[in-house]
Amino acid sequence: MIATRGLTKRYGRVVAVRDVDLAVGEGDRYGLLGPNGSGKTTLVRMLLGLVFATSGEIEVMGRPIPRRTGEVLPRVGAMVEGPGAYGHLSGRANLALLDASGPGRGSRRTRRRRVGEALERVGLGGVDDRPVKAYSLGMRQRLGLAAALLHDPALLILDEPTNGLDPRGIREIRDLLRALNDDGTTILLCSHLLGEVEELCTRVGVMDRGRLVLQRDMADLRAPTGLVEVRTPDAARAAVLLDGLVEHRDGDRLLVKAPDAAELNTRLVADGMRVAEIRPQRRTLEEVVLSLTGASADRFDRPAGEGA
Amino acid sequence: MIRTELVKMLRRPRTWVSLLLLCGLPGLVAAFLGVTKVAPPAGQGPAFLAAVLSNGTLYPAAALAMVLPLFLPVSVAVVGGDAVAGEAGSGMLRYLLLRPVGRTRLLVAKLAALTGFVLVAVVAVTVSSYAVGIAVFGAKPASAVTGASLVTSMSGTGLTTPQVLLRLACAMLYVGVSMLGVGAIALFLSTVTDSPLGAALGALAALVTSQILVSLDAAASVHPYLPTRYWLAWIDFFRAPVLWHDIGRGLALQAVYVAVFLAAAWANFATRDITA
Amino acid sequence: MVVAFVALLCATPIVLSALPASSSGLKPAELVRRVLGSGARAHEGLIEVTGSLGLPDLPGLDEATGPLHGTSRMRSWYDGTRRWRLAELSTTGERDYLSNGDSFDIWDYEQNQYTRIAGHPAVRLPNATDLTPPALARRLLKLVRAQDKLTTLKPRRVAGRSADGLRVTAADPDTTVGAVDVWSDPSTGVPLEVRVVSRGTARPALTTRFLEFAPKRPAAKDVAPRPARGLPRGTVDAPDLLSRLVTFTNLRLPDRLTGREALPGTASVASIRGYAGGFGSLAVAPLPPRYGQQLVGAAQEAGAALTPLRPPRGRGGEYLMLTTPLLNAMLFHSDAGPTFLLVGAVRPEVLTAAAGELAS
C-alpha cells in the first residue's frame, strides 16, 4: 500500500527525515510511533504530497508520489496535525464545502447523504447548526475524522486522531477504525501514545530523530521472551529450588528462565510452594520504544561535561 | 471549484461588512452634502463631487472617486491576502489539497473568486450610490434652461442619461479591472506567508509605494510600470471624445500585473512545502 | 520559465521605444523652414508637458506659471491657425480653449463656466496653448538669429513615429537658453517634441511632446464640440489678468532697453512692450500700484528677498528676482513710483540693467 525507499527531507541544515524505508501492507493497521519531533508528521506530509522530499522515492497504491498524487488522493482519507475547519460555518456546511471542492461530486442529494453518513459514523449525526468555533476539542476531532471518511477511502492516514477525546471517545474511535479495517481499509496511525498503538495496531514502526529505527509486526514484538514472572510468598525457598534459573529477585517476585510457565507452575506447586501469580514475560511496547529512542526532541539538556 | 470559492466568500461575514463599508462612505458623504449643500471648492476633493449637487446622476462617479484611493484597494488586499494564507490559517489548506484540489486549480479559483468580489464591490458601490444620488440630489440639472435632462461632460458637451449610464458602467468596470493588479499581488504574497494579515499589509505596502512614486516627478522613468499609474484613467470616460490612451494602457498594465503575479504565485505555490 | 516570462513582459516597452528611427536627411535650415511653414497642417494628438521651472504661485498668474512645473497633459485638435481646440487635462476636470474662426471660447469644468472672449487682446499671458510642441517650436524658431548654431540630431521615435531632430545652440551670452531641440514629423513638418535646455545643463528644463499624434484633419465634433444646453455662460473682453491690466496702466516705455529694440505692434495698444533679442528677448509690463504691491508680497512669502538697486547715475529702486533655470522674472519697484514686471529667458544681470534704465 505504501512503500518508501531512502526517503529524506532536509529543512536547510536540519534533517527532519533521514533515509526512511517505510512499508505498509494492504489491510494493515500500522502504528507509527515516535517522540515529538521525530519526523512522523513530515513523513506523513510527504506521503500525501504536501511536502516534497529532498531525495528518495514514495509509492502509494503503486503510484509514485508526488508525480501522480492526483490519482491517489481520491482514495485516501487523511487527518494531519489536527482537524481544520472554517470557524464561522457549521460542521455540516464545512463538510459540504470540502466535498464540493474536489472531484467525484454526484448529485446534490448524494452529496448531502454522503455528508450525513460521515457525520453519523463519527458520532456527530445529531449535531446542530452551531458554528465550528463553538465546538469542543473532541467535536472538532470527530469532524476532522468525518472529513477523512467522506469518500470511503481505501487508505486512512491519521495523525493523532484521538487528541482531545475522552476515554469513551477514544474507545469509540478505536472501534470505528477496527470496523473500517475489517471492511478492508488500510490504516496508518501516527501517535506518540503507546497504549493507543498497542491496542489497535497489527504492525508498528518507530521513528527516532528522523530515522525509522524499527518496523515489525506487533505479534513478533510481543512474543514471549523465554522468562516467566512468578509472585510467591515463598520466594526465598523458590529461589533456592530454582537456583541457576532465577535471573532476578525483588521481594516476592522472581524472574525465572523457563520455556513454559505451566510446567514451572507444576514444579513449584509440587514442591508445596504457594504461587500467587505466574505468567510468561512479554515485553511491553513501551519498553521496546524506550530502548530504541533517545530523548524527546522538545527536551534540551546541557551537554554532559558542561556542569552548572 | 470556482463556484465553491464564491459560495465560501459570500458566506463570510467579513465580505458583507466590507461591502457595507464601501457603500456606506458615499452614503455618508451624500447625507452631509444633501443637508449642508456645501460643495468642495473646484479642483479639490474627489472628482465630480462639485458637480453632483446640481445633478445626482453623476454621483456614482463621485462615489468611485471616493472609494478608489483607499477603501477599495484595502478591501481587495484583505480578501486577496486571505485567499491562500487564510486557508492555511484555518488549517483547511491541507485538507483542500488532500481532497484533492490541484494547486494550480486552487490558485485560479481563488483569483476568480477575488475577481468576483471586486465586481460585486464596484457594482454595489455604483448601484447604491446611483440610488443615493438620485434620492438626495435629484436627476434634473439645477441650471436647466430647457427641459432636457443633461449631464455636462468634462469637455462641456451634453450627455444624455443613457450615455451617462453607459459611461458609468465602463468606468465601473475599469475601476474593477484596476483592482485586479493589487489582488494579484496580495494573492502572490498570500502563497508566500501563512499570515493573511501579513499578505494584505504587504500588498498595501506595495500600493502605497506605488502611489508615492506616481506623485514623484523624479521617478517618472518608472511611472509606466507602477500598478496605480493609470488608476484615475476612468475619469477619461467623461471627456468628449473619450480619451482612450491611458485607459488602454491601464487595462494592459493590469493584465501584465495579473499575469506576472499569478505566474509568480503559481511558481511559488506549486513547489512549496505545505506545513501549515 | 516564470522568470523568463516576466523578463519578456518587462522588456517589451523598452524594445518598442528602441525601434530604430529613420531620418529624411534634410539640412537643419531646411528643417527650420519646414517647421515654420507647418502652421496650416491639420493634426490631432495627446501632449505631455514636463517642466522644472518652479515659479512661485503669483496671484493672477497661475494659469501661466502652472504648466511650467511638473507634468501636465493636453489634447490638441488642430485644423489650421484659426480653427483648433486645446484641452488642458487634470484629474478633476479640464479646461478647453476653443478657437473657431473669429470666436474664441474658454470652458472650465471646475468653475463650470463657459466664457467667450470678445475681441482680440493685443497681449495676453502665455498659457497652455503656447506649450504644444508646434506652438512652442514655431515661437522659439522664429527667434533664431544668424549667429545661433544649427545642427541635426539623431532621428528619434516620438509618439511611435520617426522624427527628424534639430538643435539650435544659442550664441547670445545674455540668454539662459542653452539649446532648443526640435523633433518634427518628416512628412508634414509638424514638431512632435521640443526640449529647451538651459545654459550649462544637460537635462531639459522644459519638454513638450506628443504621446499620440495623427496627421489628419480632426472631426468637426471634436474641434468644435457643441456645448451642453444650459451651461453658465459669460463674455469677457480680456482672457487673463495681464490683458486686463494693460488697459489700466498708461505709462510709455522706452523704445530701446539694454540695446534691444522694442517689438512693433504692442506699443500702440498699451504700455506693455517686448524687446527683441533673439532668445534673449524680454518683456516689460508696468503694473498698477495696488496689484504691484500684492505681487511683491506674494513673492516675498515665497522666499524672495527684496534688494535695493542703486545704479551709478539716476534714481534706483528695490527689486525681487525670481530665478529658474530657464526663465527669470523681476519685480521692480522704482523710487519714482511705478512697479514693473520684467520677464525673459535672460541672465538676471540683464534684467537689473534693464531695471536701471527704466528707473532713470
Automatic annotation (TrEMBL), chain A:
Positions of the ABC transporter domain: 2-234
Record bears the keyword ATP-binding: yes
One Pfam short name: ABC_tran
GO molecular function: ATP binding; ATP hydrolysis activity
SMART domains named in the record: AAA
InterPro entries: AAA+_ATPase (IPR003593), ABC_transporter-like_ATP-bd (IPR003439), ABC_transporter-like_CS (IPR017871), P-loop_NTPase (IPR027417)
Superkingdom of the source species: Bacteria
UniProt keywords, alphabetically: ATP-binding, Nucleotide-binding, Transport
PANTHER family, alphabetized: ABC TRANSPORTER, ATP-BINDING PROTEIN
Family recorded in the similarity comment: Belongs to the ABC transporter superfamily.
Protein name (Swiss-Prot/TrEMBL): ABC transporter ATP-binding protein
Organism: Actinomadura harenae
From TrEMBL, chain B:
Keyword Metal-binding: no
Transmembrane segments: 62-85, 106-124, 164-189, 195-216, 251-270
UniProt keyword annotation of Nucleotide-binding present: no
Record key words, sorted: Membrane, Transmembrane, Transmembrane helix
Highest rank taxon of the organism: Bacteria
Protein known as: ABC transporter permease
The species this protein was found in: Actinomadura harenae
